[in-house]
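Take a look at the protein record below and flag anything odd:
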Amino acid sequence: MNPVIHVAHASIWIPDEVRCQFEISSADLRDEAMQSADLHTDALAHAAWPSAEIVKASVSRIVIDVEQYADDAHEEMASFGRGMIYTRAHDGRDLMR
């Protein structure tokens, strides 16, 4: 049986249908997605485990962070606006409308 590797933060993609929820400029949003990503971890996982099934989140973690608790009461980072749904940027600026 091949291993399954979960890669949660390699994507920087923000779907057009959710772009309107963010209040920062497109350039700032792209920068935030880059700052928040674990870039190339999908390629690293594939290189380390070539026969593994790589399960990769398809959208940026600033859209939804699949590794946070669904209930923000249990998520320490939620107090910084970085729960399952990010409402603040890495520098504390508001992200959402």
Q: What stands out?
A: Residues 27 and 50 are 35 Å apart (CA to CA).
